[in-house]
């Protein structure tokens, strides 16, 4: 009979959070989630589709469609869950509000890790109440094709305000994410995949194949619902 101890440890492992417009969700997102789970020692990971993303124009598909596609993409993988909190919320999808909600849900001790691609990380100082994010979660930053690799990024290419915010938080050791509920910044490398949702929308709009850039189930959904057509 297993003791209760490993189960308690499991519940205490960091919870990864991957927000995005997911318009549509693609294999870049899913590999990011999978490689983050391994590299950061996460106990689970939630994908959080934005309802009303504040940093961009209207998405090419509705929040309900983007949520449905996210559910299709994670089907069969118990390590990945979809959080519909931002889609259901009335207000704009500010990450700080989501982290406050999740912090209240998991309690003060469990580590939360906000996972960002390099592009999203560079834009962090434009986010609503961005400095408060560091008090709510760790931040893990993945490389992304088209952006400077971490080796050249840290700290030289960070903007002065991002550099100042991250300077004493940097770690390369996932154990540091388990040792505190929030506050560290950890770059990690994933398999570089030059896949983007905008590329997929362009392919579909122009009548080209997007197969093998995203799960077949999501591609079928796009076709069945006539998404991203001209
Ligand atoms: P779009 O092309 O519409 O701007 P996107 O492909 O960048 O969309 P988002 O939903 O905006 O997708 O991204 C959600 C998160 O996933 C962001 O943190 C982003 O940096 C990250 N991400 C998306 N695609 C990749 C990728 N191919 N490699 C690494 N990170 C990625």
Descriptive account of the structure:
The protein is of the alpha/beta class. It has a single domain, classed as HUPs (Rossmann fold). Helix content is 40%, strand content 13%. The protein is built from twelve helices and six strands. A six-stranded parallel β-sheet has the order 3-2-1-4-5-6, with helices on both faces. β1, α2 and β2 form a beta-alpha-beta unit. α3 packs antiparallel against α12. The longest helix has 14 residues. It is globular.
Entry keywords:
disordered N terminus, alpha/beta, six-stranded parallel sheet, globular, 12 helices, 6 strands, binds adenosine-5'-triphosphate, 230 residues, Rossmann fold
Give a quick summary of the entry:
The chain is of the alpha/beta class. The chain contains 12 helices and 6 strands.
| Succession of helices and strands | HEHEHEHHEHHEHHHEHH
Share of β-strand residues: 5-15%
CATH topology: Rossmann fold
List all distinct small molecules, including ions and cofactors, that are bound in this structure: adenosine-5'-triphosphate
Can you summarize the main beta sheet?
6 strands, parallel
Return Rg in Å: 18 Å
**Amino- and carboxy-terminal Cα gap:** 59 Å
Number of helices: 12
Structural class: alpha/beta
| Reported CATH architecture | 3-Layer(aba) Sandwich
Record the strand order, biggest sheet: 3-2-1-4-5-6
In percent, how helical is the residue content? 40-55%
Q: How many domains, as an integer? A: 1
- The level 1 CATH classification is Alpha Beta
> How confident is the prediction overall: mean pLDDT?
92
Poorly predicted regions? 1-8
What is the global morphology? globular
Count all strands and give the number: 6
Superfamily (CATH H level) name: HUPs
Oligomer: single chain
């Amino acid at each position: 009979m297993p003791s209760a101890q490993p189960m308690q440890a499991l519940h205490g492992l960091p919870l990864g959070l991957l927000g995005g417009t997911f318009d549509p969700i693609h294999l870049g997102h899913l590999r990011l989630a999978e490689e983050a789970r391994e590299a950061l020692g996460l106990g689970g990971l939630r994908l959080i589709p934005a309802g009303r993303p504040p940093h961009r124009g209207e998405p090419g598909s509705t929040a309900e469609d983007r949520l449905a596609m996210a559910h299709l993409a994670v089907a069969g993988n118990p390590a990945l869950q979809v959080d519909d909190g931002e889609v259901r919320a009335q207000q704009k999808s500010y990450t700080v509000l989501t982290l406050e909600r999740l912090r209240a849900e998991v309690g003060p001790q469990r580590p939360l890790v906000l996972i960002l691609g390099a592009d999203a990380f560079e834009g962090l100082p434009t986010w609503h109440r961005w400095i408060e994010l560091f008090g709510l979660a760790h931040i893990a930053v993945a490389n992304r094709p088209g952006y400077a690799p971490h080796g050249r990024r840290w700290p030289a290419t960070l903007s002065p305000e991002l550099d100042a915010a991250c300077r004493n938080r940097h770690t390369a050791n996932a154990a540091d994410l388990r040792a505190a509920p929030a506050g560290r910044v950890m770059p990690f490398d994933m398999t570089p995949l030059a896949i983007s949702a905008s590329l997929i929308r362009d392919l579909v709009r122009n009548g080209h194949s997007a197969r093998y850039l995203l799960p077949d189930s999501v591609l079928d959904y796009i076709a069945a619902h006539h998404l991203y057509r001209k």
